[in-house]
Design a protein that fits this description.
Helices cover 81% and strands 0% of the residues. It is mainly alpha-helical and 246 residues long. The chain folds into 2 domains: 3-198, no CATH class; 200-246, no CATH class. The longest helix has 38 residues, at 90-127. It starts with a helix and ends with a helix. The relative contact order is 0.10.
């Protein structure tokens, strides 16, 4: 299979997966699926499962809570399979795939930032009370998500024969990494601010103070905060339900 056809197939697959599986919160959007499909295409499913399992372990605990940007180990697994298939070294494929996973987080930031163009277009359509125009802007907003995966994957696979360059790209262009890292750190703050704007803070401010104190002063991680929140919420709603029954 030519690099052009391979690049198009995997780039289209990645773009469609981000739309129909990731944004739809489907369990299919994971490194094992990406690596399995890539292994199927290159004719080595076993290699795909081996690299995919390693990348899936790396991805454990990562999730886009509050709009956070994380390494894309799905694309990393895909490139890891391709590089391992070419070099014959699984370890090399996993290592370079991890680098690509980090690199893809930059494109994730760029893709998300581009959605603001469509958001403002939708706002203007609503101001004109044009629902059809708003729907078009809303659907067009998925374009940046698709291209944010399609373009880098397509270009990367086209130059897959020179995969050694990818490993040194991050070091040579550290200023780009640092600039996008600043934006990436701001995205979670914006995401949590949006979540808080939908919450009844006036009615449940004690929970907000408790969560802040646990995180800021006691260092409780996000998972711990979630478990405490579930327990506190269950107690609170249980007492409220008993009062209604009385």
């Amino acid at each position: 299979m030519s690099n052009l056809l391979l690049a198009f197939l995997l780039a289209a697959f990645t773009g469609l997966m981000i739309l129909f599986c990731s944004l739809a919160i489907s369990g299919l959007y994971n490194p094992l699926v990406f690596a399995f499909v890539t292994g199927l295409i290159v004719g080595d499913v076993g290699l795909g499962l081996q690299v995919g399992a390693a990348c899936a372990l790396m991805a454990l605990g990562f999730y886009t809570y509050g709009g956070a940007t994380i390494p894309d180990y799905n694309v990393g697994a895909m490139f890891g399979v391709l590089i391992a298939s070419q070099s014959g070294d699984v370890t090399q494929g996993i290592v370079i795939g991890s680098v690509i996973a980090l690199l893809m987080s930059w494109f994730d930031i760029l893709g998300r930032t581009a959605t603001t163009v469509f958001q403002h277009g939708g706002d203007r359509a609503l101001a004109r009370r044009s629902i059809q125009s708003f729907e078009r802007w809303h659907l067009a907003g998925t374009l940046s998500w698709f291209l944010g995966r399609f373009i880098p994957v397509f270009i990367g696979i086209m130059f897959i024969d020179r995969y050694e360059v990818i490993a040194t790209f991050v070091q040579n262009y550290a200023w780009v990494k640092n600039g996008l890292a600043v934006i990436g750190k701001a995205l979670p703050a914006v995401g949590f601010a949006l979540l808080l704007s939908y919450m009844d803070i006036k009615g449940y401010w004690p929970f907000l103070l408790l969560g802040y104190a646990l995180f800021a002063f006691m260092g409780v991680p996000t998972l711990g905060l979630a478990l405490i929140g579930i327990a506190a919420g269950a107690l609170f709603t249980g007492k409220a339900r008993k009062k209604e029954e009385v």
